[in-house]
Structures are given as structure tokens and as C-alpha cells.
Design a protein that fits this description.
mainly alpha; about 190 residues; Serine Threonine Protein Phosphatase 5, Tetratricopeptide repeat; three-stranded antiparallel beta sheet; 2 domains; single chain
């Protein structure tokens, strides 16, 4: 069951939601010989199909020309987040777009899969994008005179990454700009 779930997550996070079957076996079953790894792939695909059949649901994954593909009708929340983030960052002046994009971020990606190498890059990319949105929102709030909201956004950045020096500097500058020297020094 765990490997079938891992297979589904791996393909859902892949660009265009498709991976060559050798990429899948390398990511999930690298320690096995190629034939055994391919056997595990097809067992996992069968398991997903069998688990959903009693509910009248088709398998979310298909093999097409040696590629494992996610059914196009299935939405992936990370795609929605990336789309909203891109829209907010490309415009840069619509506070609502920033807030909507930030609201799409539900926290660390796949926290139960922290040890899975294939989840690391997407997890870090989404966290970085979330922080970029928070910084942008902070700058926008400051420009609109809403310094309290700007501080809140920067504190979220710092709580997510305490080593983020640019966020610390921006927070100090913001406190200095509003005349709160004590907070700026702290």
C-alpha cells in the first residue's frame, strides 16, 4: 500500500504529471534489479486499481507508451498553488491575488514523506515560493500603509526560515520606518 501511494504522489508531483517507467522504478525501487523494480511498478498500479474498483473509481494512473501518467481529470493542489502564485508575482500589485495564492499553500509538502528523496525538490520549491509570496505581500502592505500586516507577513517568513537574513533586514527596516526602534534592535 505504501509504495502504491508513493507511486501516485511521485507522478502527481512530476512535470506534466507523467514519468517514464524507468524514472519511476529508479525513484521508488532503485535498490532492486530492473526486472524486480518493473514488477513492483506493475504490482503497485494493480493495487491502486483494485483498491478503487469497489468504489466505482478508475485508477488515477495509466501507462501510455512506457510513461506512467496521472489521469487528466484529477486536479493537483500544488498546480493550483503554482498558478495563483505566478499570477500574483507577475502582477505584483494586487493584494487579493497575493492573499489568495498564500491561502492555497497548505504547509509543508508531504511531511510524512520527508525521507523520500523524490519529494525534497518539490517541497523546497513550494516553500520558497510561499516565502516569496509573503515577502511580496509584506512589501505591498507596507506601500499601502498597512505596516502591521507587513510585519505579520515577514514574521511568517522568518518562522518558516529563521535563517532568512533578507526577511530579518526587511523587518528591521520596517520597524525603523514606523519608529519602533526597540523592535528594530531586537
Amino acid at each position: 500500500m505504501a509504495r502504491a501511494k508513493g507511486l501516485l504522489k511521485l507522478v502527481a508531483l512530476a512535470p506534466d504529471h507523467r514519468l517514464h517507467r524507468e524514472q519511476v522504478t529508479e525513484a521508488l525501487w532503485a535498490a532492486l534489479d530492473p526486472d524486480a523494480a518493473m514488477n513492483q511498478l506493475y504490482k503497485s498500479l494493480h493495487f491502486l486499481k483494485a483498491e478503487l474498483a469497489p468504489y466505482g473509481q478508475p485508477s488515477p494512473l495509466r501507462v501510455i507508451d512506457q510513461y506512467v501518467c496521472l489521469d487528466g481529470a484529477i486536479g493537483v493542489d500544488t498546480d493550483q498553488f503554482r498558478q495563483r502564485a505566478a499570477l500574483a508575482l507577475s502582477d505584483g500589485s494586487d493584494r487579493r491575488r497575493f492573499a489568495d495564492a498564500i491561502a492555497e499553500y497548505s504547509g509543508e509538502l508531504l511531511p510524512s514523506d520527508r525521507c523520500e528523496e523524490w519529494a525534497t525538490a518539490p517541497r523546497e520549491e513550494l516553500a520558497r515560493l510561499h516565502q516569496e509570496l509573503l515577502v511580496g505581500l509584506s512589501q505591498l502592505d507596507h506601500a499601502l500603509g498597512n505596516d502591521r500586516a507587513a510585519v505579520t507577513a515577514l514574521r511568517q517568513v522568518i518562522s518558516g526560515d529563521p535563517t532568512n537574513e533578507p526577511a530579518h533586514r526587511a523587518l528591521m527596516r520596517l520597524f525603523a520606518a514606523v519608529g519602533d526602534r526597540g523592535e528594530a534592535v531586537r
